[in-house]
Amino acid sequence: MTAPDRYSPDAPAHMVERSREYIAEARWTFAKTMARVPHWYVIRRRARAAGQIVGHEVLYGLIREHGYDRDWYGRIFKSVDLDGWSYWQMDVNSTGEFLNCAPVGIEQDPAPTCHVHRGEPMTLDPRGRYAQWRCRLCDATAVNRR
C-alpha cells in the first residue's frame, strides 16, 4: 500500500501533476556520500541542461509554497509526499538548486552515538563536502561516508 500524498490542500492540481511529470522524467542520483542516510537528489543545472527546468521549478515551488515541515534526523525540512515518496528542499534558505527524495517511511541507519559522551546521539551536520554526524555536547564528529 502506498503512503498517502501529503501537501497543503490549497496546492493547485496543475502544480501537483506537473511535479509528478518532472519526478518521472528527472535524472535522480543516489547520494552515495551519505549512504547512512539513503536518499536521491536532482540538481537544477542538470534539469536546465536536459530542458526540464520548468518541471524542476514547479516541484521546488510546490515544496516551498505547499509543503509541510518534516523532521529528518533532527533537522526540519519543507517537504511534500507524492506517490509513496517524500521530496524536500535542502533547508529553509534553499534556492532549490538541490531537491531530495526518499521513500516515505524508509528504514534508516540509526544515528551514531558520541564516543566521548557514550550513548549521546549525534545530529547530522550537512556543512562541508561530506555530511557529518556531530555531538551537540562536545562537537566530536563522525564522517558519514562508506
Question: How many strand units?
Answer: 9
> Count the helices. How many?
3
Number of separate structural domains: 2
- The end-to-end span amounts to 32 Å
Low-confidence segments: none
- The ordered H/E elements are HEEHHEEEEEEE
Query: Helical residue percent?
Result: 10-25%
β-sheet strand percentage: 25-35%
* Strand order, largest beta sheet: 1-2-6-5-4-3
What is the CA-atom radius of gyration, in angstroms? 16 Å
Whole-number mean pLDDT: 82
Structural class of the helix and strand makeup?
Answer: alpha+beta
What does this structure look like?
- By secondary structure, this protein is an alpha+beta fold.
- It folds into two domains: 13-103, no CATH class; 111-146, no CATH class.
- 23% of the residues lie in helices and 27% in strands.
- The chain is built from three helices and nine strands.
- The protein has helices spanning 13-25, 44-49, 53-66, and strands at 29-30, 40-43, 68-72, 75-82, 85-89, 98-103, 123-125, 132-134, 141-143.
- A six-stranded antiparallel β-sheet has the order 1-2-6-5-4-3. A three-stranded antiparallel β-sheet has the order 7-8-9, with no helix packed on it.
- Strand 8 and strand 9 form a beta hairpin.
- Helix 1 (13-25) crosses helix 3.
- The longest helix is centred in the middle third of the chain and has 14 residues, at 53-66.
- It is elongated, with a radius of gyration of 16 Å.
- The mean pLDDT is 82.
